[in-house]
Amino acid sequence: MKKSIAVLMFSTLGIATIQAQDSKSSFSAEEQHERIDIMAQNLNMTPIQKRDVAKTIVSFEKSLIAVNDENISESKKLAKRKKIKAQIDKNIKSYLTPKQFLQYKEMQSNY
Predict the structure, then answer these.
(1) Domain enclosing residue 105, as ranges
(2) Of 22, 78, 90, 91, which has the most beta carbons under 10 Å away?
């Protein structure tokens, strides 16, 4: 059960990307808060880590949505989304311990 919740949580960024492709709207603030709470719990994050990761997710999710609004080809949008995703991982890695980041990546790969 816990792993299922974790997989759901770590699929967030992928879902956000898909939603950004389909609509300008994203997760509600309440849904984002719940997802981040689950992530923090599964990775045993400190309050500071949780705050920093949350800021990163919210900021980059907005970037993903902005890319969708650009008047460029789908291949260019995909390339930009991949670049944003790489930057998200880089930022999140800077806030987590090596063990936490490995768990984060493992949970993402299970999605």
Answers:
(1) 2-109
(2) 91
Neighbours of 44 (CB within 10 A): 11
Cβ atoms within 10 Å of 35's Cβ, excluding its own = 21
Within the chain, what is the greatest distance between any pair of CA atoms?
42
pLDDT of residue 90: 96
Q: How far is Cα 99 from Cα 64, in angstroms, rounded to an integer?
A: 27
SS3 call for 72: coil
Q: What is the pLDDT along the chain (111 residues), one digit of tens a residue?
A: 555 444 444 545 544 444 444 444 456 778 888 888 999 999 999 999 999 999 998 888 888 888 888 899 999 989 999 999 999 999 999 999 999 999 999 888 876
| Count of domains forming the chain | 1
C-alpha distances in Å from residue 71, one per residue of 66, 68, 74, 84: 10, 8, 9, 17
The token pair that represents 68 in the structure block = 């969708």
